[in-house]
């Protein structure tokens, strides 16, 4: 097969090392990131996160659905136990979704993401800085043909009823298509639909920011301290579309920015599958948890998908 329009026929890695510094949305901690090329990649490599503290490696985590752990307002990967410290719960890397989406659409199938803290930096709240940095580094094509996950029959997951109903559906399609509907009091119903290509993602999805109501943030931060779970400790006007009443402080970047950010999170969460999709994904009020439930249900139903490889 040939890759759908806009996608690559071969797998790839970064042409040069990428470095960025920022702070975590939830931990608030400063973090330095190095993303390293993997020139001799194998099918077993993919995207690997490496936690380093004081020059010592404390955890290595593959971007693997089996390592996903439920967390408020983000997607987290966690090892079953600490690599070097023997901790029962293991080390983790949180808020991986924006970076995973950016690597996927930029054709970076293999890389090592090295961090000196537990959270990928939020930057400006969107994926645009990641897209810009990855493109500036360049891409090296590898010998392996690009693989896609071809969905062969519909899979649906639902939750709630009435106005709280959530539904996620994935079904066969010859390209990667997305349709997301969401609503938010004061802003009405929002809908984004289209074929997902790298250029469409970079132009229409990546600039959309994480968002939330200011009146909800302070109680959430306080509850996080009580539960010893970091939530929104690094939230700032510089990295979130902050809502007060029926307006966004400073205005929206894009029309229906909130639903576009839901698309961004969806693409990043589904990127844990390890390859772009040949499928149409439809989502009503998606969330990180519902994105995970859809991916988990798809992968568990082995006759619902197959690997599709581009011609050499």
UniProtKB/TrEMBL annotation:
Binding site for Zn(2+): 98, 261, 265
GO molecular function: metal ion binding; UDP-3-O-acyl-N-acetylglucosamine deacetylase activity
Annotated catalytic residues: 288
EC number: 3.5.1.108
One Pfam family named in its UniProt record: LpxC
InterPro entries (UniProt xref): Ribosomal_Su5_D2-typ_SF, UDP-acyl_GlcNac_deAcase, UDP-acyl_GlcNac_deAcase_C, UDP-acyl_N-AcGlcN_deAcase_N
Superkingdom of the organism of origin: Bacteria
Chemical reaction(s) catalysed: a UDP-3-O-[(3R)-3-hydroxyacyl]-N-acetyl-alpha-D-glucosamine + H2O = a UDP-3-O-[(3R)-3-hydroxyacyl]-alpha-D-glucosamine + acetate
BP GO terms, sorted: lipid A biosynthetic process
Pathway participation: Glycolipid biosynthesis; lipid IV(A) biosynthesis; lipid IV(A) from (3R)-3-hydroxytetradecanoyl-[acyl-carrier-protein] and UDP-N-acetyl-alpha-D-glucosamine: step 2/6
Enzyme class, spelled out: hydrolase
Alphabetically ordered keywords of this record: Hydrolase, Lipid A biosynthesis, Lipid biosynthesis, Lipid metabolism, Metal-binding, Zinc
Acyltransferase keyword on record: no
GO CC field: membrane
Cofactor(s) needed: Zn(2+)
Keyword check for Hydrolase: yes
Summary of the function given for this chain in its UniProt record: Catalyzes the hydrolysis of UDP-3-O-myristoyl-N-acetylglucosamine to form UDP-3-O-myristoylglucosamine and acetate, the committed step in lipid A biosynthesis.
UniProt xrefs under NCBIfam families: PRK13187.1
Entry's family note: Belongs to the LpxC family.
Protein name as annotated: UDP-3-O-acyl-N-acetylglucosamine deacetylase
Organism: Paraburkholderia eburnea
Gene: lpxC
């Amino acid at each position: 097969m040939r890759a759908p329009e806009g996608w690559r026929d071969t797998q790839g890695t970064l042409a040069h090392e990428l470095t960025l510094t920022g702070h975590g949305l939830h931990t608030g901690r400063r973090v330095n990131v190095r993303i390293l090329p993997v020139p001799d990649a194998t099918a077993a490599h993919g995207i690997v996160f490496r936690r380093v503290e004081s020059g010592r490696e404390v955890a290595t985590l593959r971007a693997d659905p089996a390592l996903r752990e439920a967390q408020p307002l983000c997607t987290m990967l966690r090892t079953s136990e600490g690599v070097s410290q023997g901790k029962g719960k293991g080390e983790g890397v949180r808020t991986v979704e924006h970076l995973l989406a950016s690597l996927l659409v930029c054709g970076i199938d293999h890389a090592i993401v090295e961090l000196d803290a537990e959270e990928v930096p939020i930057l400006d709240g969107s994926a645009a800085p990641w897209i810009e940095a990855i493109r500036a580094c360049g891409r090296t094509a590898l010998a392996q043909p690009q693989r896609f996950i071809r969905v062969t029959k519909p899979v649906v997951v639902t939750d709630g009823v009435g106005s709280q109903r959530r539904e996620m559906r994935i079904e066969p399609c010859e390209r990667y298509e997305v349709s997301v509907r969401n609503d938010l009091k004061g802003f009405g119903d929002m809908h984004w639909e289209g074929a997902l290509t790298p250029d469409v993602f970079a132009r229409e999805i990546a600039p959309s920011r994480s968002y939330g109501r200011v009146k909800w943030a302070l109680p959430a931060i306080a509850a996080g301290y009580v539960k010893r779970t970091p939530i929104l400790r690094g939230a700032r006007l510089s990295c979130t579309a902050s809502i007060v009443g029926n307006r966004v402080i400073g205005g929206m970047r894009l029309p229906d920015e909130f639903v576009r950010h839901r698309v961004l999170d969806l693409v990043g969460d589904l990127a844990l599958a390890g390859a772009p999709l040949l499928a149409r994904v439809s989502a009503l009020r998606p969330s990180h948890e519902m994105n995970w439930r859809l991916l988990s249900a798809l992968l568990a139903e082995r006759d619902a998908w197959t690997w599709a490889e581009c011609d050499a």
